Q: What sequence folds into this?
């Protein structure tokens, strides 16, 4: 770059060397002062323009200097290396980072976190090194980064005295966190280069022993606790201790096994999830099919009942038609006979007025055969028409309703126990109470010596009750069944009151044990399962077999039945649920709770 002004003849000024190699010279001669000053002013303006252009070039370069700064130490690259992902670091910085990951055997880029295995070989980047050298020789340095102050959630630098900058590293030896500026000595000072730097974290104090204010680097196997070196000489003296790094290796093995267990559990759960989804789809399909099938069955039942109704209707109408025709024929004959009788009666009236004896005798003899003739009488049916049929239809209705009740109870139980996931048997009283049911005693089954009270929820022995006759009534023993029968899961509790030499029996039974089928042995036959209790013993009875149970003081008994699983369990209910007896059986019909009580004892069903 040269000065465009002609040389000044007056005198010579030392050259001003400008960047780029050009050296414009200013000459001053003995010419007029005005001319000299004009030349000097022009040259100075050109120098200012050159300096401005150089400054712009430097600023433009500074904007693009980030690729030449190490993201670990935040300084210009020293011995730059480029790793496989394309990012560049100081040789010592990236080597230090990867040295800390040797135990894992898994290496990553500090910027993009791309992982490499095995550890990539580090080679100096010749091109970057030459660029960095040129930057140093030309005097162009990387522009300092704008200060990054710590914000909410950031780790603060422990060495910043005024406004805290954001920490980028934590030193596990110094036990402090450092910002970009204060971390530089750890990269430049030899005594600090061996310190272990990690990404800044907030809970640095957790690595310091609260008792000795020393770095925690030992693990006490005896107390399963991380401690410092001084702790091994103090309260943990003589304990089995290892370095934290050694314990980490052991824990990493456990971690690996735990991960395998978790993976296995995940696979098992995924299998269960897949199977459950398939079961749900199958369940929906089956439910749809059964719903359609039940619709067809009930439609056929309704059609069958409608056909039977039409048949009975036609029979009634046919019988009505035949009976009415017979009655109408008889009515017609009666009317004809009455008319003939009236006509003959008129003849008799007329004959009675005949004065001629001969004519009277002859006429009377002619009428005599008809007068002496008698017609059979008519016997009317005094019973209400179709009364027997009405009773038969009512009986049919009752039978159908009872049959439907029994079968619907069974069907309902089968529906409610059709599940996708089989429910485990309850363990706590709260779980049992989920299946609790409200029971009422059936007066139609109660022995006449049993008194029902409190809304048919309590039974005692009292004076003979005026119960009406019923085919389901117990006649031999002081027994009663509940109105409700069950086929699914159900649970109920009773409170019993016993006096000396009195007993109660708590049972489940088929409906068929009542009435004419009443067993000679009462509850506990082949169609009932019974727990008998008195003040000195407790036993289970079924099919005339007796199983003794160790007696404990008890006043409340819980009964749990899973009809489908075929389990029957009796519990002593107090603060806990104590199993008294469990029976496994295939039930073939709905089960009805039942009781037998002695005089002086009582049983009351609990609401909860």
A:
């Amino acid at each position: 770059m040269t000065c465009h002004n002609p040389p000044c003849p007056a005198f010579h000024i030392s050259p001003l060397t400008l960047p780029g190699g050009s050296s414009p010279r200013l000459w001053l001669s003995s010419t007029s002062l005005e001319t000299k000053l004009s030349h000097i002013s022009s040259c100075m303006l050109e120098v200012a323009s050159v300096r401005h252009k150089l400054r712009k070039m430097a600023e433009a370069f500074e904007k693009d200097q980030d690729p030449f700064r190490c993201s670990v130490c935040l300084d210009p690259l020293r011995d730059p290396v480029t790793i496989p992902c394309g990012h560049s670091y100081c040789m010592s910085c990236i080597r230090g980072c990867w040295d800390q990951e040797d135990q894992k055997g898994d290496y990553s880029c500090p910027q993009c976190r791309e992982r490499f295995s095995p550890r990539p070989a580090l080679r100096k980047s010749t091109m970057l090194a030459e660029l960095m050298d040129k930057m140093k020789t030309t005097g162009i340095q990387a522009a300092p980064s704008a200060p990054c102050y710590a914000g909410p959630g950031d780790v603060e630098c422990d060495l910043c005295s005024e406004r805290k900058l954001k920490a980028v590293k934590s030193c596990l030896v110094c036990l402090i966190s450092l910002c970009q500026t204060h971390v530089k000595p750890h990269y430049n000072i030899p005594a600090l280069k061996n310190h272990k730097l990690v990404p800044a974290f907030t809970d640095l104090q957790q690595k310091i022993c609260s008792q000795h204010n020393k770095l925690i680097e030992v693990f006490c196997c005896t107390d399963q606790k991380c401690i410092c070196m001084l702790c091994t000489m103090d309260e943990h003296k003589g304990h089995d201790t290892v370095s934290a790094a050694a314990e980490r290796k052991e824990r990493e093995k456990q971690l690996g096994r735990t991960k395998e267990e978790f993976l296995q559990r995940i696979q098992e759960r995924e299998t269960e999830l897949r199977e459950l989804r398939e079961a749900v789809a199958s369940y929906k399909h089956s439910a749809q099919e059964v719903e359609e099938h039940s619709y067809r069955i009930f439609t056929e039942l309704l059609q069958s009942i409608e056909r039977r109704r039409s048949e009975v209707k036609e029979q009634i109408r046919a019988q009505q038609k035949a009976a009415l025709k017979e009655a109408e024929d008889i009515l017609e004959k009666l009317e004809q006979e009455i008319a003939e009788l009236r006509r003959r009666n008129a003849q008799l009236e007329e004959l009675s007025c005949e004065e001629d004896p001969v004519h009277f005798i002859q006429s009377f003899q002619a009428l005599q055969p008809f007068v002496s003739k008698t017609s059979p009488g008519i016997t009317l049916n005094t019973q209400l028409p179709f009364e027997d049929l009405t009773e038969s239809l009512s009986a049919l209705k009752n039978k159908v309703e009872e049959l439907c009740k029994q079968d619907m109870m069974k069907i309902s139980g089968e529906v409610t126990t059709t599940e996708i996931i089989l429910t485990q048997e309850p363990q706590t009283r709260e779980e049992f109470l989920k299946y609790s049911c409200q029971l009422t005693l059936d007066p139609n089954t109660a022995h006449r010596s049993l008194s029902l009270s409190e809304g048919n929820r309590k039974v005692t022995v009292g004076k003979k009750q005026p119960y009406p006759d019923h085919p389901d009534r117990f006649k031999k023993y002081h027994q009663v069944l509940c109105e409700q029968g069950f086929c699914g899961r159900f649970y109920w509790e009773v409170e019993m009151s016993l006096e000396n030499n009195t007993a109660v029996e708590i049972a489940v039974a088929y409906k068929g044990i009542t009435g004419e089928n009443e067993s000679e042995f009462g509850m506990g036959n082949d169609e009932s399962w019974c727990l008998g209790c008195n003040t000195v013993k407790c036993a289970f009875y079924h099919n005339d077999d007796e199983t003794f149970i160790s007696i404990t003081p008890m006043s409340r008994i819980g009964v749990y039945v899973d009809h489908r699983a075929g389990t029957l369990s009796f519990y002593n209910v107090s603060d806990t649920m104590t199993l008294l007896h469990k029976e496994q059986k295939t039930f073939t019909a709905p089960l009805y709770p039942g009781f037998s009580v002695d005089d002086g004892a009582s049983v009351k069903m609990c609401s909860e």
Remarks:
- The first strand starts at residue 10 and ends at 12.
- The mean pLDDT is 81.
